[in-house]
Structures are given as structure tokens and as C-alpha cells.
Amino acid sequence: MALFQSPLVGEAIRAAAERLAPVSDTGRLDAELLMAHLFGVTRSELLLRHMRDPEPPGFAALVERRAGHEPVAYITGRQDFYGLPFIVTPATLIPRGDSETLVEAALELKPDAARVLDLGTGSGALLLAVLASLREARGVGIDRSSEAVAVAQRNAEQLGLRPQGIFREGDWHASGWANDLGTFDLILCNPPYVEAEAVLDPQVRDFEPASALFAGPEGLDDYRVLIPQLRALMNPQAVAILEIGAQQAGPVGDLAAAAGFAVAFRRDLAGRPRALILT
User: Fold this and answer.
1) Which residues face 138 on adjacent strands?
2) CA 200 to CA 25: how far, in whole Å?
3) Virtual CA dihedral for 184, 193, 132, 277, nearest 10 degrees?
4) pLDDT (tens digit, 9 = 90+) per residue, 170-222?
5) Is 31 helix (H, G, I), strand (E, B) or coil?
6) pTM of the model
7) Tell me, which fold does domain 9-68 have in CATH?
8) What is the DSSP secondary structure assignment for residue 115, as one 8-state letter?
9) Which helix (H) or strand (E) is 82 found in, with range?
């Protein structure tokens, strides 16, 4: 009697890609990332060295989690952002490539920033990406979620960016939340900006933290609270850079202009206004 043999990695990935096709436009990539995670290697190393190895135990279970719309980043606990590896958990939003627009704008506009503030820091991706390039700068990341703060602290440690970047709880809806922060040369913020009734992909709606996504019926509630508070946190030549939704340039820009700011925008790779720049 022939003994059962596990399929080879390449075969398992092909089968997983077919399984994931109904729920993901990147089923093959998802399968490769999940397999690389099990091997503890990069995707490139997987493709170069392990495609003819036997399928490791546990791969099918990871594929089924992805087939249930769970994001790959939450399954693997990792997401790359601006060329850096970040720990992510369901307590934080998954950093997205569109948000790199803010980092690029920050490094171009304030390469001499000495103090940086990141509001709604989540995994710490925005702040730590900037600090990794501005090694003389110091930064503070604020989040109202203690779990998110813990994740950001872990990222600072594993990237070698502590004590350059520190993190603490804070909620810009609460009175006195910024009393002891001082002022900054650069402020970054990716606030909640999704409309309450927006139709989202299940991998976002069912898995990412709602408190970091939704901001009232128009998606503007947090901008209305936060923007008028920014001036008190800014040094005279400071720049504040806020992420906005694809259709929010007009209304958020109007809120900022009404608060006395000069307004400019930077577009993401898809050509959509993504970074609102306030001076």
C-alpha cells in the first residue's frame, strides 16, 4: 500500500489560489504569503527555495481563515509599510499603501522636523516610518485604544525606534487630552473618516476596528472635532498632514479653511486626493 504523501508547496498554493478566488482578487498572492508565513521566510525566499518542499501542516487552516474574509495581515500578524515590517493585530487598522502618501509629503515638507505628533497612531506606522528617515527627530503617538498603543510600542521596539518614538493613550474628544503634549513641527493623522452607512468589503467591515473606521453619517465627525484643536499643537512653521477619503477633499478642506488654515492636497497612486496639508 502506498503511503499518503503531502502535496508539494507549489501544488498546495495553486489549489489555495483557486479556493480563494471567490473572496480575493489576489488569491495567488494571499496563498503565497500564508505559505511563506508558515515557513518563516519572505515570499521571495519561498518562491526560490521551497516550492518543491512538502506542504507544511496548518496551511489548509490558514487558507480557510482567508476564505472567511479574514485579512492576510491579521492571519500572519504582519504588514509591510513604507518598506518597514509592522506588527498588526485586530486592535489596529492594517496600514495601507495609500497612507504612504502622508509619509512622502511629511519627509518632503518637513525634513528638519524635530518633534512629530501622530494622532490616532494605531500600529504606529505613520510616525515610525517618518522617524526611521528623520533619525534626529523625536515623536509622540496618541491613540484612545490601549491595545493599539501596546502594538505601536512593540513596533517601535522591533524597529529600533525607542526612545525616539513613544506612545500613550489619548482621545481628542476628551477635555484636556493635549494639555501636556507641547507643540510640534509636524503633525500626522489618519482619523476615522468612513460614513456610518458605507458599504465596505467584508474583510474590512467584519475584522478591522470600527472605532478607527467610522465617523458619523458623513464621515466628518472627527475632522470637525480635531481640526480646530490643531493650531494649539503647532509651532509657527509647522505642517499638519491628515488622511482623507477619496470624496472628502472639498468638505474637509472647507473645515480647515474655516479654522484659519492654508490648505493643499497630495494625491495617492490612483490620483485621488489623499493627504490634506495644513499650514
Assistant:
1) 115
2) 15
3) -50
4) 999 999 999 999 999 999 999 999 999 999 999 999 999 999 999 999 999 99
5) helix
6) 0.93
7) Helicase, Ruva Protein; domain 3 (1.10.8)
8) E
9) none
